[in-house]
Design a protein that fits this description.
This protein is α+β, with helices and mostly antiparallel strands. It is about 45% helix and about 20% strand. The protein has 2 domains: about 35 residues; about 80 residues, no CATH class.
Length: about 160
Amino acid sequence: MICPYCANEETKVIDSRETENLTTTRRRRECIKCEKRFTTYERIETDLTVIKKDGSIARYNRDKLRRGILMSCEKRKIDTEEIEKAINRIEIRLRSLPSSQISSRTIGELAMKELKRLDKVAYIRFASVYRDFEDIKSFEEELVKLKGRGAKKWKQII
């Protein structure tokens, strides 16, 4: 591991811990040369591929999923640790699927399920982009579904 401070290639691991769901290993390291400490995270590399709407294929990109979820959660009081846990749960589900080729639709649906659990506003933000609502009526229908039992009352308000 290269030291981020002095670029020395020799470091030692001081502490190593597994995260709650055992998907990531957190390592506290110290540079042999400058003696500064830093943290690294080790995660299982997956060879998942994504089949996009247009039929093209791309490598799965955790950062792209994270960016989409973070944009949906912007200015909401959602802990970043909770977001990371949600992303980890999505990845666990993706890896458990029988095929390593996954449709972007599957990823989007899993992300929406996690966001719905985390924050309803973030869910609606994500859904509005993911589902590409054609008009206000389709947006309204999603709000009604989200509201559930109070749908009639909610529809009257809208």
